[in-house]
Write a structure and sequence with these properties.
By secondary structure, the chain is α+β, with helices and mostly antiparallel strands. Helix content is 24%, strand content 45%. It starts with a helix and ends with a strand.
Length: 207
């Protein structure tokens, strides 16, 4: 079930998606947006309308167990599905206590070169080690986030909206972009119950 769901998630990023972003006027930095996404798969089409509310976050310093790899875009599906499960099992067997939900990082996503740089990650307490996973620290920073309930079908629309918002505010994004899965395939088989948070870190503007 997990591999199928992760394939669905990444498929939304790979297949062509037509997006229409309608920005609300006069509501300031946290203005809600209406995102209309139309996706085609075979003969089926679906249209989904979402009202977005951006969250401005102050992220503390965080530690993660990470497995990172450069891959063809078509191989990302299997990588996230298999390696997320492997990391979860390894951490459980070793008695590692997670400090947050399972996470995915994206450092690069290049459709022209058919290349990506992605990682699976588990937030842990400082000093935690679990070979062969690498322990990394993400520094304290600010971020803009969106919460998404339900299946991963609108995930690409969320990423596009966050990228637009970063540009609109004239902010400099920091890598990686982050997807957190508070409720995902490991917790439920019902995609309608999924809860995902997408975060774009950014460099604090100089005063």
């Amino acid at each position: 079930m997990q591999n199928r769901t992760m394939r669905t998630s990444l498929r939304t990023l790979i297949l062509p998606v037509t997006l229409l972003l309608c920005f609300a006027c006069g509501k300031g930095g946290n203005a809600a947006e209406e995102v209309i996404s139309t996706s085609l798969e075979g003969r089926d089409s679906s249209i989904r309308t979402l009202q977005l509310e951006y969250l401005d976050l102050e992220l503390p310093e965080r530690q993660y167990l990470v497995f990172r790899q450069e891959l063809s875009l078509l191989d990302v599906n299997g990588f996230l599905g298999v390696e997320t499960e492997a990391l979860s099992v390894a951490a459980s067997k070793a008695g590692v206590v997670a400090t947050g939900p399972m996470t995915a990082f994206t450092y690069a996503w290049d459709t022209e070169r058919d290349w990506s740089d992605v990682a699976v990650a588990l937030p842990v307490e400082a000093g935690t080690t679990l070979p062969p996973y690498v322990t990394i620290t993400l520094p304290a920073t600010k971020a803009i986030a969106l919460n998404m309930n339900g299946s991963y079908s609108a995930l690409s629309a969320m990423h596009v909206a966050l990228g637009q918002e970063i540009n609109r505010r004239k902010l400099k994004p920091l890598l990686p972009s982050i997807e957190e899965y508070p409720v995902g395939p490991q917790q439920t088989a019902d995609e309608d119950e999924f809860v995902t948070r997408i975060l774009y870190q950014y460099e604090s503007p100089k005063k």
